[in-house]
Amino acid sequence: MAFDAGLAQRVREVLGARPGITERRMFGGLAFLVDGKMFVGIQDAVLMARVGAERHHDALAMPHVRAMDFTGKPMKGYVYVDPPAIAADKDLSAWVLWCEDHARRLPAKKPRP
Question: Are 33 and 61 contacting, i.e. CB atoms less than 8 angstroms apart?
Answer without folding.
Answer: no
